[in-house]
Design a protein that fits this description.
SH3 domain, 11% strand, Rho GTPase-activating protein 10, alpha+beta, 20 helices, Phosphatidylinositol 3-kinase, Chain A, PH-domain like, membrane, Substrate Binding Domain Of Dnak, Chain:A, Domain 2, 780 residues, 6-stranded antiparallel barrel, SH3-like_dom_sf, 5-stranded antiparallel beta sheet
Length: 780
């Protein structure tokens, strides 16, 4: 479990647990700050001390290996897992280069030191300043409340009213600052992954160029670099979508904080001042407690908590309520007070003070006092207002009309569905489409009045206007679960099963839409809308949680993955029936089985995805030419053709201007941007590109889990040979590549020989020859 999300609604409660979560985020950022500071120092050592280069690299590698990113929520995407694992991969590369010390000719300052210093100064530094403001306002706010609550009730009404207004204004200012600080804390936690890893990636590219002896290793790193660049870009894209949703939720809560309270197990909860009597002559004192009350059990919990002492949490007290009585100012020289009588201690009554008259009325209602409000502390899920869009005959007509027009007129338009239309035109078109009289008269296929981007925006707006998302509130959580873990096959099976649990109309409309999106992705070479990009666009459109919270928004990236799975597996999901029993959404490893050294954990079907800022030149004859049957349907039109020249793909229109590259057996295209490339990935003394023979596709156990091409065995270290013999499987194994064999325990392999892949054998099983993990079998 990573860091817990910070809910904006908790800013108004400011509970002890909210402060604990804020502190956990602050500690993690401080840890990151110290780590980056140390990393910058290590990087400067590489430049300043050539003779100590090897020692500096070891320290650098050690720092990378020991650091691990924390994440918000309960799971990470595959891209985030790859980013998290990237630091350990970088560490491994450094260790292999220690023996090949050479003078580093390229300056590390521009590629590593400055970006990290900029991130530390502008991002982490900004958070530190926000923290100072937050702590200062916390002190000021609760000091003013203390002072205000100590005002005598006998003062003039005008004086008391003026004091009330001043306190309320100060509280609102504090809440505003708290909201901004919480938003900034969570933004920097998400941002730091790609902001930190990108300079690291650039640093490694520049360094490998100068190691001629590590030419084969540099080729391997080039493959990993491209995979990681894709992971970073996908994470960046999801971050942008998540950030906009978080900001929208924050603005909603800022406008109506009471309408966005989270569901709670307590009837009432919040801060109260409790009078504590002391022996004479000390009198009594008022201590702030965080109080929680369950009406059904009449159980009252209160925990002393002082914000100004660094958030010190005291020992809690639990009792059962007998009755509650309002205190008037003629009996006590404090306002907003009420008495609580303890059931199990007859004659014992506690005097408590709320922050305001409104809060006192709320507590009286919850505790069964005489005065009550019409509203309750019970927090329910806020239903979304129903729109005019419905899953009826008219809805299907709208969908089919828009899809037909898009496929006729704009299937090759760049940025299809990502480039939005003018809002007024979109609303006018949607109103015409939703009117029975005008809908049949509209000819979107032949009319030049309506731009394609207006039609696509109207289609998305219709889907968002449905009273319930197309993939339903009920199944929302079920769809998210398989996207968080498991193998590609288990994910597809789980989504397949869930789609067929949808209501018939929902499934029918989803079928029509996903078939269209599959067609759009098949034209991604022209329209630049890959499966990943379509997932970003349609994830929030087809799926959304019933309750808007930060935790739900953090799952937005998994909604995108669900849509990607639908598009990639359209024929299977919508044209075949699922198994009668629910599939396992997470594939389990066999007990006691050794880890496969080349396991690609969580890697989905290969497809074109968004890439940017790459510079790669292909060597003549090295461009891959994958067979059609080995290529996913969604990628056929996106794979680069075999060409000896560099393939440059145009940028995607829109604010992000993301660049796309096809991901076949290995990526053969590059994307160029207006900003300078991170590093030229060519040996300065040799124009030969760092490329890999397409014939060597099986994964090598000694390589990164994402590398497709093994290094050639050194001439002076031939691989240990195994003469032709039989072997028996001691663990089950599922193939992850077309060149590997799947088998169960006890399977007998014929003609087993040493493979050129370190850690692998070659053998024949049931007439098929392929690769076998050496640690999964026993030679006979």
């Amino acid at each position: 479990m990573g860091l817990q999300p910070l809910e904006f609604s908790d800013c108004y409660l400011d509970s002890p647990w909210f402060r604990e979560r804020v502190r956990a985020h602050e500690v993690e950022l401080e840890r990151t700050n110290k780590f980056i500071k140390e990393l910058i120092k290590d990087g400067k050592n590489l430049i300043a001390a050539t003779k100590s280069l090897s020692a500096a690299q070891r320290k650098f590698a050690h720092s990378l290996r020991d650091f691990k990113f924390e994440f918000i929520g309960d799971a990470e995407t595959d891209d985030e897992r790859c980013i998290d694992a990237s630091l350990r991969e970088f560490s491994n590369f450094l260790k292999n280069l220690e023996e090949q010390r050479e003078i580093m000719a390229l300056s590390v300052t521009e590629t590593l030191i400055k970006p990290l210093e900029k991130f530390r100064k502008e991002q982490l530094g900004a958070v530190k300043e926000e923290k100072k403001k937050f702590d200062k306002e916390t002190e000021k706010n609760y000091s003013l409340i203390d002072k205000h609550l100590n005002l005598s009730a006998k003062k003039k009404d005008s004086h008391l009213q003026e004091a009330d207004v001043q306190v309320e204004q100060n509280r609102q200012h504090f809440y505003e600052l708290s909201l901004e600080y919480v938003c900034k804390l969570q933004e920097i936690q998400e941002r730091k992954k790609f902001e930190f890893v990108e300079p690291m990636l650039s640093f490694f590219q520049g360094m490998f160029t100068f190691y001629h002896q590590g030419h084969e290793l540099a080729k391997d790193f080039n493959h990993y670099k491209m995979e990681l660049q894709i992971n970073i870009q996908n994470t960046r894209n999801r971050f942008e979508g998540t950030r906009s949703e978080v900001e929208e939720l924050m603005n909603k809560i800022r406008q109506n904080p009471k309408d966005h309270k989270r569901a709670s197990q307590f009837t009432a909860e919040g801060y109260l001042y409790v009078q504590e009597k002391r022996p004479a002559p000390f009198g009594s004192s008022w201590v702030k407690h965080y109080c929680m009350y369950r009406k059904a059990a009449k159980k009252f919990n209160m925990i002393p908590f002082e914000h100004r002492s660094g958030g010190k949490l005291g020992d809690g007290e639990v009792f059962f309520l007998r009755e509650c009585t309002k205190r008037h100012t003629d009996s006590i020289d404090r306002r907003f007070c009420f008495d609580v009588e303890v059931a199990d201690r007859p004659g014992v009554a506690l005097t408590m003070q709320a922050f305001s008259e409104e809060e006192r009325k709320q507590w009286l209602e919850a505790l069964g006092g005489k005065e009550a409000l019409l509203h309750s502390f019970n927090r329910a899920i806020i239903p979304r207002p129903e729109g005019s869009a419905q899953l009826d005959k008219m809805g299907f007509t709208i969908l089919k009309k828009c899809i037909s027009a898009v496929e006729t007129r704009g299937i090759n338009d760049q940025g299809l569905y990502r480039v939005v239309g003018v809002s007024s035109k979109v609303q006018r078109l949607l109103s015409l489409l939703m009117d029975v009289k005008t809908c049949n008269e509209l000819d979107l296929e032949n009319s030049s009045e309506w731009e394609v981007k207006t039609i696509t925006s109207a289609l998305k707006q219709y889907l968002r206007s449905l009273p319930e998302p197309l993939m339903t509130y009920e199944l929302h959580g079920d769809f998210i679960v398989p996207a968080k873990s498991g193998s590609p096959e288990s994910r597809a099976n789980a989504i397949h099963f869930l789609v067929h649990k949808l209501p018939e109309k929902n499934k029918e409309m989803l079928d029509i839409l996903v078939k269209h999106l599959t067609n759009v992705s098949n034209h991604s070479k022209q329209n630049l809308m890959t499966v990943a990009n379509l997932g970003v666009v349609f994830g929030p459109t087809l799926m959304r949680p019933q309750e808007e919270t930060v935790a739900a928004i953090m799952d937005l990236k998994f909604q995108n993955i669900v849509v990607e799975i639908l598009i990639e597996n359209y024929e299977k999901i919508f044209r075949t029936l699922p198994d009668a029993t629910p599939p396992e959404s997470v594939s389990q490893s066999p007990p006691n089985a050794p880890p496969r050294q080349s396991k690609r954990q969580g890697q989905r079907t290969k497809r074109p995805v968004a890439v940017y800022n790459l510079c790669l030149q292909l060597e003549d004859g090295d461009s891959p030419n994958p067979s059609k049957e080995d290529t996913p349907t969604s990628s056929l039109d996106s794979l680069s053709s075999p060409s000896p020249t560099t393939a440059t793909v145009q940028g995607l229109p829109g604010p992000d201007r993301n660049h796309l590259v096809a991901d076949g057996d290995w990526a053969s295209a590059v994307a160029s941007q207006t900003r300078p490339p991170m590093v030229q990935w060519l040996n300065p003394q040799s124009p030969t590109a760092l490329s890999c023979s397409p014939a060597a596709t099986p994964p090598s156990p000694k390589l990164s889990p994402f590398l497709s091409c093994p290094p050639a065995a050194p001439a002076d270290k031939p691989p240990e040979s195994v003469t032709s013999r039989k072997a028996r499987a001691v663990y089950p194994c599922e193939a992850e590549h077309s060149s590997e064999l799947s088998f169960e325990i006890g399977a007998i392999f014929e003609d087993v020989q040493t493979s050129r892949e370190p850690g692998w054998l070659e053998g024949t099983l049931n007439g098929k020859r392929g690769l076998i993990p050496q640690n999964y079998v026993k030679l006979l």
